[in-house]
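Hi P.,

Sorry for the delay on this. The queue was packed all week, but I finally got your sequence through. Input first:
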Amino acid sequence: MKTSDFYYDLPEELIAQDPLEDRSSSRLLVLDKKAGKTEHHIFREIVDYLNPGDCLVINDTKVIPARLIGAKEETGAKIEVLLLKRGADDVWETLVKPGRKAKPGTRISFGDGLLVGEVVDVVEEGNRLIHFEYEGIFEEILDRLGQMPLPPYITHQLKDKDRYNTVYAEHSGSAAAPTAGLHFTPELLKEIGQKGIDIARVTLHVGLGTFRPVKVDDVKNHHMHSEFYMISEEAARKINLTKENGGRVICVGTTSCRTIESAADENGRLKACSGWTDIFIYPGYQFKILDALITNFHLPESTLVMLVSALAGREHVLAAYEEAVREKYRFFSFGDAMLIV
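Then the structure:
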């Protein structure tokens, strides 16, 4: 299975640069995973495809303003730091640009010294471990100095930080948004609940893997970065009960999917747990829990296109993507959505 098998042609003008004013007014392409048939709707109409007794699984991670622009204390040279993974004692794993200017011992000042970082080590793939010094509360300083870490294909400035988070975001720790969830509004979630659909909250902090393209020809040789996840007793109970009663488990986003599929036992049951996952789902994978998926349109040759192809078949997915291009759907993080049932 080649990476090039998951390529599709996307005109650059279809890459969404800004979020819609009304989250739930995005378009929705519904794909029948068995037949390959498609339908076109508005996202808020997704309620019509959810049945009483189903369970919607959402990822309640919260994106932090993880992009920091600083200057080397010695020379004043500009340095950009992206916070990826929090360690102990105010040490973070980071992505630094330009990396050659960030050797161990390098000190970087942010906000005229409000926050100071010192590079303490170089780790896997050139990432830097940085120890931060500050007075006060780190999160408050980060909120003041940091910018939302938008993907490189988004060139517009984000006016409202909250628009790169879901309305149910709770647990801080992500370097990128679980974008399928961006389409939901409090009103839509209330309507879903009133219809008798359960909502289970899990957490997966979206990390470096989101920014890494597949660089190998053979899909099976790709290495996924690990990300931290948590599943509560309540979420495990809701999902297990749904399966027992014959309802469908519908994941909102690939991150929710990867969370429950990582934690499921061989019988497709969940228990409360937390840990790190580097699960890589591509065609041939047998899903243990997931029945349906709400997701955005993903980059060509990405691990996310491979995941949706594992669920609906590569030919069906690529045909649906080609149709979305013809119909001028909006693509990627701030783009339109797809429901695979």
